[in-house]
Write a structure and sequence with these properties.
One of its GO terms (biological process) is glycogen catabolic process. By secondary structure, this protein is of the alpha/beta class. It contains 32 helices and 23 strands. Strand 18, helix 21 (539-554) and strand 19 (562-567) form a beta-alpha-beta unit. Bound molecules: N-(hydroxyacetyl)-beta-D-glucopyranosylamine (9GP).
Amino acid sequence: MGLTKKRFIADFQAEALHLFADSLENLSPMQQYQALAFLVKGYYAKDWAQTKADYDHHQQKQVYYFSIEFLPGRLLASNLLNLGIKDTVEAGLKQLDIDIPDLYAQEGDPGLGNGGLGRLASAFLDSMAADGMAGNGNGIRYQYGLFKQRFVDGYQVELPDDWLRDPYVWETRKENRAVIVRFGGSVYLTPCDNGGLEPVYQDTDDVLAVPYDIAMVGHHNHMVNTMRLWSAEPVPGHAHSLAEKSRINAITQILYPDDSDTAGQELRLRQEYFFTSAGIQSIITHYRRFHQDLHLLPNFVAIHINDTHPAMAVLELMRVLLDDGGLSWEEAWQITVQTLSYTNHTLMAEALETWPEEMFARLMPRLYQIAQEVDHRFRQTYTPRFGGELIQRCAPIADGYLRMAYLAVIGSHAVNGVAKIHSELLKSSVLKDLYTIFPERFNNKTNGITPRRWVQVANPELSELIDSAIDTGWRSDPSLLVPLAAHLHDEKFLKALHTAKKANKEKLAAIIFDQLGIEVSTNAIFDVQIKRLHAYKRQLLHVFGILEAYLAIKNGENRPSRVHVFGAKAAPSYRYAKSVIRLINAVADLVNNDPDCKGKLAVAFLPNYGVSLGERIIPAADISEQISMAGTEASGTSNMKLMANGALTLATLDGANIEIKDAAGEDAMAMFGLTTPEVAQLKASGQYSARAIYEADPTLHRVVDMLTDGTIPGITTEGREIQDELLVYNDTYLVLADFRSYVEASHKLDALWQDPIAWAQAALKNIAASGQFSADYTVARYGRDIWDVLPATPVGHGGE
Ligand code: 9GP
């Protein structure tokens, strides 16, 4: 949009007056932020309304991305960037003498997700808008985010994340689009006028689902899409007891309530049905404003099931088509399968949801009836061809449970994994039987990230340097980063790259000092691991690497100086993960307080990792730790963000690390560890002995002993628990098996660090090769292969 600095300043002053009846300079930074955000909302409001009107007018096919998590991050800077007014606005703010970073920092970070799953969902919404695809998000407006993480004596403490305490400027409540979601009660079928059967519901618990819409602003294309988040409220006019009211409010209170007991499980199931049903009902209501014929639904609507949480979309869409639409089972099933698609994001058994039949039937009796029929017909149709055993293994209902991943595959026309290796593993392991039945449904869509946020907004130093070398085309088409590789022998450029990284390290060092009181040297290698805390991701291996270095330093060895930066939340009920957090903090205390380590080794565990903290850490990273046991990490996306900012990946051949290696080249990173087939073989052989490795490697022996021998103070219980997992339970994630090769790979990076030019060359190779991982290309591929929705904005050269 054409906006001059003068016009912006006048608008901003007027907005401040309008909102707060005061002049700008009298407002608090929070009020100034709110005035600016409201102003920006006003700037795109017309485009938002117009985009919706255009979609309706042209009857454009719309994608609805159903996800229990979204992690949009702060929106002010990214909206300004997408509107093409960031420079003008910042110049105006400067003239007004407003502290720009402080203003941006006023914005809350909606913690409506846990990790990669939620961030990917938000990246996709951003990219769909950028590509000019009609894409909508559908999720939950949790009153509290995941949780705010604090460390007390090194332990994780979870505090409520009251992100809605200050009004959230970007959302718009759409009371007129509220729908009712029905839980519980009983249901029976009765003959109706058209000769069919219709369900009669009795004694249901009704909940009002009220949507809050948030604009997803497209990049320089005047297109504005919508993320719709549902909030649970009592139905007006119904007499609800206090207990009922609080049960209703609980539905959209927190993300991932503790499901270690039945009440918690029930709440999760309610959440899933709540946003799935609300989403489907509103899609169909909207569709029916323009179309009589439900058979045409797949021509105009694609609904995407992101992980298993919304998998009951299969049943809910069937319900609406059968009960409200009056279609036959066969008609409804065909429409459902053509409309739905599903992405699997994990091979971890615990994340592939199953629900006890009894609970499911009690909370959603009509859906349960439909599930039984789906199961019955599935068995009947495929048993003759594939045999009863195979069908029993992959049927949607078995052994008293509904198996949501299987239901999602059976009810979708397309199923994808999120990296090449992961998509292959789905076919050969967790979804093997369903792949046998429906091979044509399976495909791969490697994840992507938003370089607009992770490079342009988070790393202006690097962005400007790239502009100076190859012009600005990469900003809208990141595949145009490839020519940057021509500067591989341009020493001046390489030095500038180093300087830009250093500037980001200075900023991160200040945050580390501010938050943890730890002084770190910016001449050190910044070695970063930022992701959910989980045993398979092996933060423990990273800790063991630190302890190996610690022992070497204590031994008088000279190593390049390293600062190890961690960011990770553990699920509140995940005991082992919390023990690892305690361990990392204890190792940090040990190392940071040892005078021998001063200037050589430091550990900084920054609490409350999330999108905004990621924007500070990622530009400053030299090394990206992607060290999951091969065959466990579906894809990873921090690997892509870090690579795009010039970090060298220290990695196993797992998830998207493999594709990063193919893109950047093996010499631009450090690979180590057992491969997926080697892991499988070792496990299958029954020959793995963690104890034997421990006995054979004196350094490793010493490191493992340190968990319990008092060298690391204050971790008696946690150290014992972790040591037992390794030596008594034989090291599920093969930390000991990979230790030696991890250390060697790490030493290789130490050696490279001694040659700053060679290091900068490797960083450059990563940056130049990172463009292909832009989510703009990923969603274009989803559009082409799965949703049948084409980008309206040219997407560039990143497609396959
Ligand atoms: O663990 C995967 C991660 O590897 C992937 O990058 C991300 C997005 O596809 O999804 C994560 N999965 C989950 O969070 C739960 O399935």
